[in-house]
Design brief:
Layout: H1 12-21, H2 23-28, H3 46-65, H4 75-87, H5 95-105, H6 111-131, H7 136-210, H8 215-240, H9 248-261, E1 265-269, H10 277-298, E2 302-310, E3 313-321, H11 333-344, E4 348-353, E5 358-363
Parallel strand pairs: 1-2
Antiparallel strand pairs: 2-3, 3-5, 4-5
Helix pairs in contact: 3-4, 4-5, 5-6, 5-7, 6-7, 7-8, 7-10, 7-11, 9-10, 10-11
């Protein structure tokens, strides 16, 4: 994070001091200018000036040393109030130091302890005024300014706490968004590469078997391998940049080509259109993973895809094969990714073992 900018005439040391002490804290020091105002009417003696300077010399190091972003200990409030009482005989506005004491006490935690300390400080001002026979206006001015300072400090502390909570919430939201995006990319890459690499492997095996007896077919299969690899590369790049737009119609064509290469007959029941783009992408990725599972694991000879419409849109897609009898598979990354996409779109996924084969049902809630 970049540090404060150096303004005209500011040195690096000045910038460092501003960063260390904080600009608001330095601004609040202007309240000290109230202290010598009574001297405009009642000229101070050299002793008054020297004692007041000594009091300020004790006050400033404590005021500047206490961290502004941490809870305040008790001793600064006590010391500031004591400085004011000690300077009371020297004809300055001594209650200014009492308000600094109230300001420090407002940052004591817990809040209940801060309120008790502030109440004692405010009560001590009129008590001290009465005991030392000072003008009642001193007590009135000190208590009024102390109450205002306490209210301002509590409001500022509450605002800082809310800002801190908001910042923490924003950080958490950014973290969750980043995690969701990483999971999306991982699911897309798994489905994209799983399907494409499965097709490439099948065609490579087929080309190897056909090489000796059918060179032309072998060349065609090798060309299709190159095409599939280039297509997969484009899709991976698009998925990483978040611009991938999967299409159910396109995936049906890919499924037909992949299943045919694997020796699996495909039968499609229902139409792909119309369908909203968001629902289209979810069903397309679900179809890709389901077909990949058929090719990899089913040892099937036939696969059926059933598209059911509701309110003019596709509401359900079933992918069923006649492969080897098997229990419902353990859900790995593919099925988990499929389930996550459908859940995000308000849908659901069901996996049922058949005798023989497996049926995968993807449902979407009506839009």
């Amino acid at each position: 994070m970049a540090g404060p900018r150096q303004g005209p005439g500011m040195t690096a040391a000045d910038t460092g001091r501003t960063r260390r002490y904080g600009l608001p804290r330095l601004i609040w020091l202007t309240y000290l200018l109230i202290y010598p105002l009574p001297w405009l009417e009642d000229h101070p003696s050299p002793h008054d000036i020297w004692m007041s300077a000594a009091g300020v010399a004790v006050f400033l190091p404590i005021y500047l040393r206490v961290p502004e972003d941490k809870p305040m200990p008790l001793y600064p409030a006590v010391v500031f109030a004591a400085i004011g009482y000690v300077l009371a005989p020297y004809h300055g506005a001594w209650t200014v130091f009492a308000t600094y004491a109230v300001s420090a006490a407002a940052r004591i935690v817990p809040r209940r302890k801060a309120l008790v300390v502030i109440a004692l400080l405010l009560a001590s001002i009129p008590a001290f005024t009465a005991l030392t026979h000072r003008p009642p206006i001193d007590a009135g001015f000190g208590v009024l300014l102390g109450v205002l300072i306490a209210m301002a400090m509590f409001s500022r502390i509450s605002l800082l706490e809310r800002n801190k909570q908001l910042l923490a919430a924003q950080t958490e939201v950014r973290g969750l968004a980043a995690t969701a995006e990483r999971e999306r990319i991982a699911r897309d890459l798994h489905d994209l590469l799983g399907h494409s690499l499965t097709m490439i492997a099948i065609k490579a095996d087929l080309a190897g078997r056909m090489m000796a007896r059918d060179p032309a077919r072998t060349a065609a299969e090798i060309e299709e391998i190159g095409t599939a690899a280039r297509t997969a590369l484009r899709e991976v790049r698009a998925a990483v940049t978040g611009m991938k737009g999967a299409s159910l119609a396109y995936e049906l064509d890919r499924a037909r080509a992949a299943l045919t290469s694997a020796g699996v007959a495909l039968h499609v029941v229902g139409e792909t259109a119309p369908i909203a783009p968001a629902r289209d992408g979810v069903l397309a990725m679900a179809l890709r993973e389901a077909v990949t599972n058929v090719i990899r694991h089913a040892q099937a000879t036939a696969c059926t895809i059933i598209l059911t419409h509701e309110n003019g849109e596709i509401a359900e897609m079933i992918v069923q094969d006649n492969g080897t009898t098997r229990a419902a598979p353990r859900e790995g990354n593919g099925l988990l990714g499929m389930r996550a996409r459908l859940a995000a779109a308000g849908g659901s996924l069901e996996v049922h073992a058949l005798r023989p084969g497996l049926r995968i049902t993807a449902r979407l809630a009506p839009s």
